[in-house]
Amino acid sequence: MSAKDRLKKFREDQGLTRREMADFLGVKPSKVQDIETGKQRINEDFLILVSEKCNIDVGYLITGQHNNAPSLPDSSSLYAPSKNHEDLVYIPQFDIELSAGTGAYPADHPLAIASLPFSSNWLIKKGLQAHNLKLLRVMGDSMEPLLKDKDMVMIDTSRIKPTEAMPFAIRLDGDLFVKGIQRQGDGSLVLVSRNKAYNDLIINSKQPPEDFVIIGAVVWHAHSWI
């Protein structure tokens, strides 16, 4: 196995796409792709960058032998389980928030700031695939009591068909929201807040907003009382 193969294996073990890995390293996605496919050679500067950002021994990348086994990026080291837990998949957490309120403007290039471990068996039982999943924070109280401010949610970007069974992450006019969705008889969609202090939003099926996208369904969430 070559250095590029070890880099690719590490990325895939963390459940990251090439774009997400590039965002974490602060490089262009094409650079990660070119290195993994052998189009571009790995130079010393890139090896050092990967080593520092991902806490991987440079010697391991070059030779496959190391003093310390590859571990998670520093930003997620608090969540790292025992290395004996081989069934874990790491889902990236991004530094953008979903508004449970009046809207949150998304970053143009959101950065993966951490990766949290989930059991691969649990993902399989739930019908989830790691490459479709993103972790984000909720901001605001419009979805209380279901989702509270600062809750973490897992978004499945492959689930974009509206259903009342779960909330959805939505982009509307440049803002990000988390809302329930109800489909009306005429095909229009109602974006529903659980907190009745907030008005519902209606998406006209005949004249939908230019920037309206269902990003994915909320399939899991976590709340802390401290």
TrEMBL record:
Organism encoding this protein: Marinomonas balearica
Lineage: superkingdom: Bacteria
Protein name: Phage repressor protein C with HTH and peptisase S24 domain
Keywords for the protein's UniProt record, in alphabetical order: DNA-binding, Transcription, Transcription regulation
Residues in HTH cro/C1-type domain copies: 7-61
SMART domains, sorted: HTH_XRE
GO molecular function annotation: DNA binding
InterPro entries associated with the record: Cro/C1-type_HTH, Lambda_DNA-bd_dom_sf, LexA-like, LexA/Signal_pep-like_sf, Peptidase_S24_S26A/B/C
PANTHER family xrefs: FELS-1 PROPHAGE TRANSCRIPTIONAL REGULATOR, PTHR40661
Listed PROSITE patterns: HTH_CROC1
